[in-house]
Amino acid sequence: MFAAKFSTELANRIGSTVEVATDNNLIEGILSTVTADLALVIDVSSGYGDNVKLYISVDAINFVRFPVAA
Amino acid sequence: MANLTDRQRNLLNLLNQMSQNLVTANSANDTNSGSSLSHNFSLNLPGFSLGGGQNLNLSLGKWGGGGTPGTPTTIREVLLSLVNEQVQVTTPFDTISGTLLSVQDDYIIIIEASGAQVLVQIEKIEFVSNT
């Protein structure tokens, strides 16, 4: 049901809305790309205009929350 | 063999009997094996290993030597014992509360009260409590 590795499970959920927590930051956006070491989140919380791409080291992630769609 | 105590000698005799049983079982399964009885042998049982011959090496496997049986030694083992329970998991950023759904190799899945799924990296977990 779930992949054995964290990065593999994230890769299975590309396109989902996520909240990614690192030690000091919470990033909200769309999970775009995942490799073994990097996750790319398109930040949509900054309002209108350019969507900011955030590359996050997978090792730096505390947890990833998948909110229930409203 | 010179300086063995009675207990060591008895143990060695028992091990020899076990090795002969193993050889009997093996030759019953493998007709091409011929005579392969040797003086040194090893037994591998889950969580327990014995090395035969002059030196006896005893090691207690799963929980480590000297520990209380059943005591977890890693945070993953603690989590495995809490599957389907209400837990609070604390990471440097925040504490996550909910039902522990599953424990994988390097992360866990928690379902929060809101229904949101949270994937938490095990190596980032500082402490766990059963609420």
Write the layout of secondary structure elements.
The complex is a heterodimer of chains A (70) and B (131).
Chain A: H1 6-11, E1 17-21, E2 26-34, E3 38-43, E4 52-57, E5 63-66
Antiparallel strand pairs in A: 1-2, 1-5, 2-3, 3-4
Chain B: H1 6-29, E1 42-45, E2 48-51, E3 57-60, H2 75-80, E4 86-90, E5 95-103, E6 107-111, E7 117-121, E8 127-130
Structural class by SSE content of chain A: mainly beta
CATH architecture of the largest domain in chain B: Roll
pLDDT under 50 segments of chain B (min length 5)? 26-38, 50-63
Largest sheet of chain B: 5 strands, antiparallel
Task: Please give the share of residues in helix of chain B.
Answer: 10-25%
Model regions low in confidence, pLDDT < 50 over at least 5 residues of chain A = none
Which range does the strand content of chain A fall in?
35-45%
Give the SSE order of chain A as H and E letters.
Answer: HEEEEE
Strand order of the largest sheet of chain B: 7-6-5-4-8
Rg estimate of chain B, integer Å:
24 Å
- CATH overall fold name of chain A: SH3 type barrels
Shape of chain A: globular
Average pLDDT score of chain B: 76
Strand content of chain B: 25-35%
CATH top level label of the largest domain in chain B: Mainly Beta
Computed structural class of chain B: alpha+beta
Residue-averaged pLDDT of chain A, rounded?
92
From the N-terminal CA to the C-terminal CA of chain B, the straight-line distance is 57 Å
CATH topology of the largest domain in chain B: SH3 type barrels
